Amino acid sequence: MRLITWNIEHGRANARHRAGAGRARAHVLQTALNRIADYEPDVVTFQEVDRFQPRSYFTDQAQLIADTFRSRGFTWSHYVPSIVRLGLVRAPGLAVPGASWLPSFGNMMVSRSRPRQWKIADLGRAKLRWRTNGIPLPVPGENRTLLAARFGESAVSSPITVASTHLELQSAVARSQLNAAWKLTRSVGLPAVLLGDYNLSLQGTKVAVGAVTAEEPKRATSDLAVSQPTFPSVNPAYALDQALCSAGPGCSLDVVAVSTIELDVSDHNALVVDIEVDDDSHTD
């Protein structure tokens, strides 16, 4: 089973693009999405997806993603707004009725098969803090969410939960959010994989949930976090985008490959994780 996670940075071109870093044009994002689809994944999760925002020229990026992958044989997609933006006002996406059709950004998942069930959750945000370099400015926390989907048995996997999240920039808050997100993901059903931009190092993930960490194939005999450097997208040095895996009782989960995809969109490269799951004790 092939899983891919990618923080698209609202579709902003990076220095690899022939015109250089800068604008978030729909056709540039479209080209990058087609490259992702060429890797023939089973599930893809996205972070920092915009809908109707000025910075991305009011493009409905969630619809663009859904349409692109539907044309490649995917049958399900779901967008979860983390933050709704109306001018200078920001509000938690899950607290605003009809938020999916307001200017927002959030998490998204697309999959080849339709899940049996899915869960969304609000992970909260960091407290207001002050930027201290230069003129003191208030910096509000940004609301974070979780999307978790339970997939039934398929040709490529036993039943499995796949989840997506994007955590806060403040490490202490990110660790707390990761702990909550991982508990929620596991509650949907094991085995499970939590994908996303953690804004943590692998060591930070180890501290948050006690996971074993690796940058190469490995069996998940306990909670296992895998990654490779994905940030910044040009000359990456930090493994911020990760996959946290758990086999659960009576089954095995092997991470058989971990790699990245260099794209000319975003300040993150995409993370590709290939897994094999053998579950004789279906927990569904």
Write a brief structural summary.
This protein is α+β, with helices and mostly antiparallel strands and 284 residues long. The protein has four helices and 17 strands. Helix 1 runs parallel beside helix 2 (61-70) and helix 3 (171-188) packs across helix 4.
Would you spell out the secondary-structure blueprint of this structure?
Blueprint: E1 2-7, H1 26-38, E2 43-51, H2 61-70, E3 76-86, E4 89-92, E5 104-111, E6 117-124, E7 129-131, E8 137-139, E9 144-151, E10 160-166, H3 171-188, E11 192-197, H4 202-209, E12 212-214, E13 218-219, E14 224-226, E15 241-246, E16 251-261, E17 270-279
Parallel strand pairs: 1-2, 10-11, 12-14
Antiparallel strand pairs: 1-17, 2-5, 3-4, 3-5, 6-9, 7-8, 9-10, 11-15, 13-16, 14-15, 16-17
Helix pairs in contact: 1-2, 3-4
Report the biggest beta sheet as strand number plus sense, adding barrel if it closes.
8 strands, mixed
Radius of gyration: 18 Å
Tertiary shape = globular
The overall pLDDT, averaged over residues, is 91
Structural class, by secondary structure, is alpha+beta
Q: How many DSSP helices?
A: 4
Order of helices and strands: EHEHEEEEEEEEHEHEEEEEE
Task: Name the helicity range.
Answer: 10-25%
Q: Separation of termini?
A: 19 Å
Strand order of the largest sheet: 4-3-5-2-1-17-16-13
Q: How many β-strand stretches?
A: 17
* Beta-strand proportion: 35-45%
Uncertain segments are none
